[in-house]
Amino acid sequence: MSQFNLRFLIAIPIIILLAYFIGQSVSASPFIVITIVMSIVSAILTFQNPENGLIFLVYSMLLSPEIPIGNVPGRPVAIRVDDVLIIIVFVAWLAHISVQKDWKGFLITPFDKLLIGLTALYIVSTSWGIFEGRINPLKGFFYALKYIEYFILYWITVNVLVTESVINRSMRAGLITCLIVTVYVYAMMPSHMRASAPFDKVGGEPASLGGYYLIIFSILISLLLHADTTASVIIPAIVLLCVFAPFVRTLSRASYLAIVPLTLSILFFTKKRKVMYALILIGSVIFLPIIAPTLTNDAMKRINETFTADSSGSYKSVNVSVGRRITDQSALDRIFSWKMVAREKLMRSPFTFLFGNGVTGVGFIDGQFFSNLGEIGVIGILMFYGLIIKIFLFAKRVYMESSRPMAQGLSLALMATVVGLLTQSISTNTFIIVRIMEPFWFLTGLVVAIHTLQEQPATTQTDRAPA
Hints:
The chain is mainly α.
């Protein structure tokens, strides 16, 4: 028997098995096949040039479907295609740099120690919870992995964005993604459903899209204030006007609350066009109800539901100020779940007080501070918020030291984003939501990369090849 025939006979059962697997996957979930195909494509592109893999990730942040992987009590366990792509791109990037003779090593950044410390804490606390039988292994593993994935995305970003051309390409990809999402939301509006991102459950995850638009607002406003050309004024201004209505249609109260300190923080810190920006803010508050009465009424109605909705659950109301009582059931559920974490879950043992119950170890707690407090304990809280504060202070330093418009705009945007997301996270698990955290950590990596690029001599910038 010839060698060709032997190979053919061996290939036949493999092809049949592969065809059967693909057929079963398509019938069960077409997104599994999409994930496999996209993973192969992203791996090849990243190995050839890591810039391509990063651009691939930028598009996937808001444009990837969700794949359910198991039914367990409490939080549903699902992954998105971009969860897989981050790991694939990371591995392909490592493979790429392993064969590069001129590779100069990983870029050391100001946040590495805290990121590594938090990664270790997520692993240890979750593993301990699984060992004690308090955490479902599948659920704990995948939710802990999400936190770690965001750190990986940050490390990929700062090590791949090593030239201005790559930075510009990634920003264009982010702009195109934003426009696609916004067109999708406008297409949803006639149905009067709450706005949501593509592939999200319609009307089911408004805070995710609201948090994403908070980041977009920060970037657009900051770039607009520091624009030095006609094009850099017109483009952010047009996009800013386009995304306002979709943001309002999320009907996310946490996002509404966050937009106030976000815009005011930009006013406080900006070195450019402060008076003009202040006048625009005042004019918006005065004339918006006249220009867009329907959007204004929708937003006010949603806010008032916090104090006027009927309580149908076991919790009736909570005083928040003289003459104001929270009666909305979702808001009440948050408040009493916070009390449960502080009084019961945290005090279970000295270990849980210091290191927490592990990721998912306290169930679903809608509010980042108390969710973190229950999952990674007091030490985790100090590390986590220490990291966020350090990011803010780093962005502030970059903003004060930079003279280039893009560096100023993006660093100011990162400062405002931190303020906005911290506010939103009071009543939302902002810092684990994929649609928010991937853009956030990408923006953080972008600012670090720009700062690193500015500090390098011109010869070093041109000679250094992408990692």
